[in-house]
Write a structure and sequence with these properties.
This protein is α+β, with helices and mostly antiparallel strands. Helices cover 26% and strands 23% of the residues.
């Protein structure tokens, strides 16, 4: 099985300020807790955004263009940090505000994008384990037409330490936006294969895709939910 995604443009952000998106290491560094500045969002509204939503808006904004785009937002873990903090407060007998609850839902970034950019086009939120980016791209491609580009936005941040396992070590925060268009010359390729994985499980598929898009890095084989995929870029 082989997938080909036409990529007109992309934007990436990582929490490691010492490694800009154009010079990402093979393996991610530790999360430094940083958050994008978002100067295009009024300060009052910016304070109501979670870190994950800020990351999503930061990479999405440069790719908006003139018209409104259909969007696909994807995150393997979503706002799990918000949810866990809220549950811990409940267990401690503390009250939880409705605002805090609204920030814990998986489509919070999607809703924030629609509000801040007055976007009324269709929007989908996806979570599919280590297949999350692939499923988001497939969903985005299914909505493509000659007069309709689609914006795919992936974002994730470190999960609470209590959920870490040897099979899934901690990953730093990162966000990746890709504008899919039938007019694009750059192609992102994902092909099912039997070859041994290059980076299990020390890094994520989105991390490697961002590395390839921003450099001359060759293709990589990644172990995903049920099978391995060889990812590469054709320009």
């Amino acid at each position: 099985m082989k997938y080909t995604f036409p990529v007109l443009g992309w934007q990436g952000w990582t929490s490691s300020t010492s490694n800009p998106a154009s010079e990402l290491p093979v393996y991610p560094d530790a999360d430094d807790g940083s958050t994008p500045a978002l100067p295009f969002v009024p300060a009052m509204k910016r304070r109501r955004l979670t870190r994950l939503a800020k990351m999503a808006l930061h990479v999405a904004e440069p790719l908006n263009g003139e018209g409104q785009l259909a969007t696909v937002f994807a995150s393997q873990h979503g706002e799990v940090g918000q949810t866990v903090d809220m549950l811990d407060r409940l267990l401690a007998g503390e009250a939880v505000s409705p605002t805090r609850f609204s920030q814990s839902v998986h489509n919070f970034a999607s809703g924030s994008y629609g509000i801040h950019f007055s976007n009324t086009q269709a929007s989908t939120s996806i979570a599919a384990g280590s297949d999350t980016l692939l499923m988001a791209l497939i969903e985005g491609q299914s909505q493509l037409s000659a007069d309709q580009d689609v914006l795919v936005v992936y974002m994730d941040e470190p999960v609470p330490a209590r959920f870490l396992t040897p099979a899934e070590p901690q990953q730093p925060a990162m966000a990746l936006a890709l504008r899919l268009s039938l007019s694009a010359s750059t192609r992102l390729l994902a092909r099912a294969c039997e070859a041994p994985a290059d980076h299990p499980p020390l890094t994520s598929v989105p991390w490697q895709v961002l590395r390839m898009l921003n450099s001359a890095a060759g293709g990589v084989v990644m172990q995903q939910e049920r099978q391995r995929y060889h990812w590469s870029v054709s320009r």
